[in-house]
Amino acid sequence: MKKLLSIIASGIMLASLSGFDTPDTADTDAVSAATGTVRYTDDDLRNLQDFLLARPAKEDLTGKPYDLNGDEVWDVFDLCLMRKEVEKSADTASDSDTIVVYFSRTGNTEKITEYLIDITGADSYVIEAAVPYTDEDIAYNNSGCRANKEQNDKTVRPEIAGPIASLDSYDTVFLGYPIWWGEEPRIIDTFLESCDLSEKTVIPFCTSGSSGISTSERNIGTLVPIGKQLTGKRFAASASKTDVETWYDSLPLDK
């Protein structure tokens, strides 16, 4: 399955880094990568990028085959080589006409997305903020937090780290996001205004503790021209794969 993920613009800055020692990576990793026995994904790209930027690891990277050039150091050169491998795999992967585009800060929307991808075989693209949101940025009880300020100003457009190149090859776009202050996060508006959806079928879905999806659906429908917008779905954080499958089966799509 093809997944689309652009390396953030700050990746250029990584070229100035000398690199970091690998976390106990086996010597055979570079050999495996060189012989093509390792298939890298956008998750690997994100892991290596976070490592080089000294961000907290989302998983244990011990033993990961990220030393692609065999110099026993993880650096920007490995990142560039990995990106080429991912792009090569993408070019020869699925010809799906459906893509799931999503933004997920806490992981709830990402979980629903993973279910949807597994059910549909769709491609995916993750919207990542150029300036990542911290826990303090989305502290709902703080009226001065970043997200609060953004949601109160409909003109704000947070920058996306790696904008998607094109949606031309897709007919159907699932759009996933959490509900912030009753609406879609402003970074979703950034994405919508960066793409031509005038001939696409767009299907929103969201995750939320209690707020519905209807306000964000109206916002999306009036922000940019959309070929056809289907009724969306709100999921709780506890939603199961069966819940997602039931919703997908109910959609008026050619399956």
Characterise this structure:
The chain has 255 residues and is of the alpha/beta class. The chain has two domains: 3-91, no CATH class; 98-250, Rossmann fold (3-Layer(aba) Sandwich). It has eight helices and nine strands. The strands form two sheets. Strands 1, 4, 5, 6, 7, 8 and 9 form a seven-stranded parallel beta sheet that branches. Strands 2-3 form a two-stranded antiparallel sheet. α2 packs antiparallel against α3 (76-91). The longest helix has 16 residues, at 76-91. The radius of gyration is 19 Å and the shape is globular. Mean pLDDT is 85; it is low at 1-18 and 25-35.
Calculate the mean pLDDT score and round it: 85
CATH class descriptor of the largest domain: Alpha Beta
Helix content: 25-40%
Overall spatial form: globular
Biggest sheet statistics: 7 strands, parallel
Output the number of helix runs: 8
User: What fold name stands as the CATH topology of the largest domain?
Assistant: Rossmann fold
Number of strands: 9
Gyration radius from CA atoms, angstroms: 19 Å
Low-confidence stretches are 1-18, 25-35
Strand portion: 15-25%
Instruction: Give helix and strand order, one letter per element, not per position.
Output: EEHHEHEHEHEHEHEEH
